[in-house]
Each structure stands twice: as C-alpha cells, then as structure tokens.
Design brief:
single chain; globular; mainly alpha
Length: about 280
Amino acid sequence: MLPLTVFWIIPMFYIIYLSMTDWDLMSPVKTFVGLENYTYLFKDPEFYQSLQTTLIFTVGSVIPTMIGGLLLALLLNSKLAGSGIYRAIIFSPWVTPTVAVSIVWAWIFEPRSGMANAILSELGMHTVSWLQNSVWAMVAILIVTIWKGLGWVMVFYLVALQSVPDSLREAAQIDGAGRLTCFFKVTLPLISPTTFFLFIIQTIDSLQAYDQINILTQGGPAGSTRTVLYLYYQAAFDQFNVGQASAVALLLVVFTALFSLASMFMSRRSVHYLS
C-alpha cells in the first residue's frame, strides 16, 4: 500500500487539483480556475479531432494486429519446419524499443529515397508522401504499430492454441465437423479468454501510444495523427498549460476506465473458460 499510495493515489489527487488550476510549470503561483479547463476542452475542436483520431488509430491497430497475430499463431502452431526461428524473427520487433523502430521506419517512409516508395516504383505504382499527407500519415503509423505488435499477440495465441485439448477437436471431427467448423465452434470459443485479454491490453496500449507518433509525424500534418495522449503532451510541454494537460490526462483515464468496465460486462457472455 505504501508505494501504491506514494506513486499512484497521491499523484492522482494532485493531478485532479492541477486540472482545476492555471499553471505554466514555472510560476510559483497556481491560480485556481475551477472547471474552466474542462469547459474549454469540451468547446475545443482540436479535442474532438484528437478523440476521432484516437478512435481511428485504436480500431485500425488493434483489430488487424489481433487477426494477424492469430493467423500467424495458427500457421506456426502446425508442424512447420523452422517454426522456432520464425517465431523469434516475428517476435523480435516487440522487444525492440519503439523509438529505434520508429526511426528506421522514418527512413523507410522517406519520400525520395525510402524503401517503401522504391518498392512502389518497382511495381509500377505511384509513390506516396507517407508522412507529409494527412491520410497516408495515419496509415504509416498504423503499419508501424501493427508490425511491432504482431509477434506479441502471436505468442499469446500460440500458448492458447496449445492449451486446447485435442480430445475436443477429435470429438467434433467424429461428429462430422470440418476444419473451419471445428475452428469456429471449438477452438475460437476456448481461446476467447486470451482474445479478451489481448483486446483489453492492446486497446489500452493504443490509447497510450506516443513514441511512434512523436518520431514519425509529431501529431501532424494538420493534426491528422494527434491522439488524445499527444494532445496532452503538446498542452503540457509545448504550450506549458499544465491545467489543461491535466484535464486531458484525467479524461483519458476516465475513458480507459469506462472502456474496461464495458468490456468486462460484455465478456460475461462472450468469454468461455474451460473448467
């Protein structure tokens, strides 16, 4: 309870207090302004734009990462020659620092000499201004995020698939179920606890994404990749508006908590545990 109180409870109450003040990080005086910071946020178009961007980023990264990780796990769970090497290669991006990964991908997305446009040119396709275009900038960040998270999701699904009893699959096949039916009726329900866990963790991780956005686009162009967390960073360390930044941080915590509670409620019907 001591470290929990010192490093979580006390800072949380302090942030609540800061969200009701006007402070620039340097002035010794913190002016109490009540709920003005929250009122400003709910009237600020940039806040709603960041909410929309966060939703697009979360949906666009979580769902493909989970589907791709499951497909890779199904492939490597079979008796594939050299599967151990493939697992290590696919998992390696996850253990690589996001900053380092983002710097490498920034070179890949470089419009004149980057590998991405070189491949498009070889295929006879038009080159793309990856990080300078409002649409393609988000696509580039999603590519980096999905590529980095596939291996982590794959490892969890591999463990889940190996824990499904073979006797249940065999019983389903004896009853006339094909591979596809066996997967959707037996395997998928039995790995639903892992799916639920990955969905929660991946979503929270997406809500807190910062490194790849900061390295690749700095929230641009024209705010097209500015998520709620990056809006918090800009308010705190670019504009030195600690009160507004604290309000953004608290709203992000509230959104995350509401999402977790809703997911826990929905999981009662969709998650099946093998007793």
